[in-house]
Each structure stands twice: as C-alpha cells, then as structure tokens.
Design goal:
494 residues, alpha/beta, 23-stranded parallel sheet, binds uridine-diphosphate-N-acetylglucosamine, binds calcium ion
Length: 494
C-alpha cells in the first residue's frame, strides 16, 4: 500500500465549444459531474508504434469516439482525458474537441490514472470514468450509469456486461446473484478457476462520488501480477469501508468492447460500420450489399441515394439526395450535391461536386476540384485545384490542374493543362463556351477567351482571344502517289 502518492498530473484547459444539453440531467445544471477518459496506456497487445487510443475504427481514433459520447453527457469543459504514453501525439489528435488533459507520467495503472487526476476532479461531486479504448459506448448508456448511481446512493457504480467469452476481462463478484451490490472485481490473471467461470465482466466504465473515491484511493496497492494500481480494486476497498458499491449491466454488451488487439479493433470497426449502414438505411439510403461498404462515422448521405456494392465513403464526406454512387468508388472528405451520378471506380478527395453532375467511370478528383452543376467528367480524367463551370464537359482521358474553366465549355479527349514548369505551378483559364479540340496541350499560364475554339492537337502557348480559332500544330503535307511510286521502284505489289 503506498504511504504517499506523488500526483504529477498537469491540467490544461482549452476553451469549450457549445454542447448538446439533451442528455444532461436537469438537476445537474450546475455542472458538478466530470467525465475522465483513461487514455494514457501504451497498448502493448497491439504491437504498434502508435498509441493505442489513436488507432482508428469507423474512420477516426478510438479516443475521438469516446470524447464524442462524453461531450453529449456533460459540457466539454468538464471532460478530462488522462494521457501519458505519446501524450503529445494524443493531445494533438483530439485538441480540437476542446476537452481538458491530465498528464499521467509514468503510467502505473488505471488506479494511478485517477490518482494523478485528483486535483482536476476533486471539485466535482461525481466523476464518470470511461476507457479511451472502448469506443462503442453511447451517451445513453453513460447517462444510465450516472442515473443508476444517483438512485442507488452509491459510492461506486460500475457498468458490467454478460459475455459468452469473458476471457481477459475483470470478473464481477456480486454479493448475490440478484443483488445490485458488488463485493469485488477480480482481474483475469488473479482469478481462481471458479471465478474465471463468471461471465459478468467489468466494462471499465464506472462512476464514483469523488469525495469518497479520493478519501480511499491511496489505499490502492500494487500487489498484483502487473505491479500496477488497479482502479478495479476500489470496489473491495470501498466495500470494506462500508461504502455502497453497485453494478448495472449494459443493455447492449457490444458497447463495452475494448480494442486491445488488432482482432478486437477489426471487430469494433465492423460493429460500427454495420451500425452506420443501418442508420443510413433507416434514413432512406439504399445500400446494396451493405456488408461490402465502408462508411465512416461522420459521413452524411441524403435520402434515395443508392450506394452500390464495395463503395467507401470516408471522413466528413456529405452526399446529397437521389445520387447513385457506383461500385469501387472511394470518396474522402468531399461534398456531393443532389442527383449526382458517379459511375464505378471514381476516386474523390477533398472535392466538391454540384447537383446533377455526372462522373466516371474512373474519374480521379484530387483536392480542390470543384465540379459545377450538371457538368460531366468522364473516364480517366484527372483533376486538381480546378473549377469546372456549370454544364461543362471533360469526358475522356484528360488532365486538368490549376484551372478555372467557365460554363458550357467542351474539353476534348486527351486535353492536358501543362501547369508545371518544373519549379512553379501556373494557372489555365478557359472562359465560358470555349471549345478545346481533342489532344490539345494548354501551356500555362494561358487563357482561352469566351467562345473561342482551339483546334485539335494544338499546343497553345499564347492567349487565345474571345470568339477566335487557334490552331497550333504542324501543317499536313500530302504527297499524292508517293506509296505507289515506291512500290513500283521495288518491283513488287506491296
Ligand atoms: C481493464 C480493467 C478490467 C476490465 C477491462 C474492460 C483494470 C485493472 N482492469 O482492463 O477489469 O474488464 O478494462 O475493458 O482496470 N490506462 C491509463 N493509464 C494506465 C493504464 C491504463 O490511462 O496507467 C488506460 C488505457 O489507455 C486504457 C484504459 O486505461 O484506455 C484501460 O486500460 P487497459 O490496460 O486496456 O485495461 P484492461 O486490461 O483492458
Ligand atoms: Ca482495455
């Protein structure tokens, strides 16, 4: 048992954005509940050079999901992430959420994580403790834990789950099968064979009355196989001190799954994506073979849009209504208007596609592409940092980079904007109604005026005035009878 404890926790507060009050209990309007998210561990079982809580499921870090749930229950200013291993990286990845950070250095166990957060948490009446590696937790379940604690007048309330395979988890020893009261939590490594048969497990989510927690937390010891301060030991300590320790079982056991191994991360990712597809389908989106689609947590899709098999919709992508997204398309952080058709195999990053546009098959929109209303971008067309105006078309085998293209422009097959001189990038401007013949090369900086024509296979190096025709290619020479004369000279027929 440690006689003295050195709290090395440093608290940093960042300005908090507004939060949703829907799950906040009216009686706690004075904000006396904090949420502490334990996120300092290394994640040894992942065998990774990256910190565990930054491993991604559903397209974002484990910790980001837990923060999103927490900030729906208490104001962001009352959420504390306890970080330690690779703390700077973890902090940088989620600092934008506006939560607070407490530094746990070194990491001596889940109990120690709460010890170092004492100074930050002591002003609160109650603290809800979440695990930064268990991202399926919902705001509703956190609120249930909070309410169960209040209605049972407990010092410690833990969330539990009944699992078919409880291996690896801490087991919950209830006073009796039907009792809400808990005697202790036994970690897998210390459990007797009989205790290992208990299928009710400790989820790693708790709530404590802070005064009671910090009155007894120094009684935690390290006499266990890991030599760590286990937060789970608080159950037996509080019990011995005649404090009330209770457990409430999760309605959906999947919610407590933690990502300790790559296999568990894959399982959580699948849960999350299946739930995302189900939610979108409930909202009126058709998903063909949803088990083949990869849709990130923050994606939005409008009603009557159809996602074909093997589509990936990633990041903050928003897709409008009545669209059709063809198989093997990958959309990342892009905004798609209504009535857009993506034929199969389109790859879009950080791009905007306005209503009624048609893309693909196999169009590649790189960052900064803005495709206008009703515009067409066809197969093997690559774009980057361009604006393609309303109703304009670039249908075949073309590269358009650093270009401002007006409305009603026709870009012929094989057109290339030569935007790079080896040192700098230059801009191409094609004004409204211009017609660019096939196989044209437009050497930037260059401007093709309104309504102008560029002859096929031209290499345009000078501006083309409006309504004019520019042809810049070798003249065709025809030598009549040349082949016949050669043939006769050889004395043959071929
Ligand atoms: C923990 C519980 C176990 C429970 C399981 C549920 C303990 C001793 N055991 O085990 O009863 O069944 O969760 O998933 O608590 N962390 C810190 N600082 C540390 C150590 C860990 O912040 O010093 C963080 C980790 O980053 C992680 C969380 O606490 O996010 C849980 O730690 P982890 O090592 O994953 O605990 P488990 O072995 O899963
Ligand atoms: Ca864990």
């Amino acid at each position: 048992m440690p006689k003295s404890r050195k709290a090395s926790g440093k608290v940093q507060t960042v300005a908090a954005p507004p939060f949703s009050r829907s799950l906040r209990k009216g009686g706690n309007a004075d904000g006396k509940i904090a949420i502490a998210i334990m996120a300092a561990g290394k994640g040894t079982r992942l065998k990774s050079k990256h910190p565990k809580v930054l491993h991604e499921v559903g397209g974002k870090p484990l910790l980001a999901h837990v923060i999103a749930a927490a900030t729906k229950v208490v104001p962001t200013a009352d959420v504390y992430a306890i970080i330690g291993h690779e703390a700077d990286r973890v902090r940088a990845a989620v600092a934008h959420t506006g939560i607070n950070f407490v530094l746990q250095q070194p990491q001596k166990g889940t109990g120690h994580a709460l010890m170092v957060a004492r100074e930050a948490l002591a002003p609160y009446d109650q603290v809800i403790v979440l695990s930064g590696d268990a991202p399926l937790i919902t705001p509703e379940t956190i609120a249930r834990l909070r309410d169960f604690h209040a209605s049972h007048n407990a010092a410690m309330t833990m969330l539990t789950a009944h699992l078919q395979n409880p291996t690896g988890y801490g087991r919950v020893l209830r006073k009796s099968a039907k009792s809400d009261e808990v005697l202790a939590i036994v970690e897998e490594k210390s459990a007797s064979p009989a205790q290992k048969r208990i299928t009710e497990i400790n989820s790693g989510f708790y709530t404590f009355s802070t005064a009671t927690l910090f009155r007894y937390i120094d009684q935690l010891g390290t006499a266990n196989p890991h030599g760590e301060f286990y937060l789970t030991d608080m159950a037996a300590i509080l019990r011995k001190a005649k404090e009330r320790v209770v457990a409430v079982a999760a309605e959906h056991p999947n919610e407590i799954l933690g990502g300790n191994t790559r296999a568990e991360l894959a399982e959580i990712d699948q849960h999350m994506r299946r739930a995302k597809c189900e939610q979108l389908m409930q909202d009126g989106v058709t998903i063909l073979y949803p088990q083949t689609c990869v849709i990130d947590a923050d994606v939005e899709v409008g009603a009557d849009t159809i996602l074909e098999p093997f589509v990936q919709v990633l990041g903050n992508t928003q897709i409008g209504s009545d669209c059709r997204i063809g198989s093997y398309s990958v959309l990342n952080n892009s905004v798609i208007g209504d009535n857009v058709i993506l034929r199969p195999g389109c790859v879009l990053s950080e791009s905007v596609v306005k209503a009624g546009a048609r893309l693909g098959p196999y169009s590649h929109l790189r960052p900064g592409s803005d495709i206008g209303e009703g515009a067409h971008v066809g197969n093997f067309v690559e774009t980057k940092k361009i604006r393609l105006g309303k109703g304009s078309k670039a249908n075949h085998l073309t590269y358009l980079g650093d270009a401002e293209i007006g409305e009603g422009v026709n870009v012929g097959a094989g057109t290339i904007t030569c935007n790079y001189d080896g040192v700098h990038k230059h801009q191409t401007v094609i004004e409204d109604g211009a017609f660019i013949g096939s196989d044209a090369t437009l050497v930037a900086p260059v401007r093709v005026g309104k309504g102008a024509y560029v002859g096929a296979a031209s290499c345009i190096t000078k501006d083309v005035p409006p309504d004019s025709l520019a042809i810049a290619r070798g003249h065709q020479i025809v030598k009549e009878g040349w082949v016949k004369a050669k043939r006769q000279a050889r004395g043959g027929t071929k």
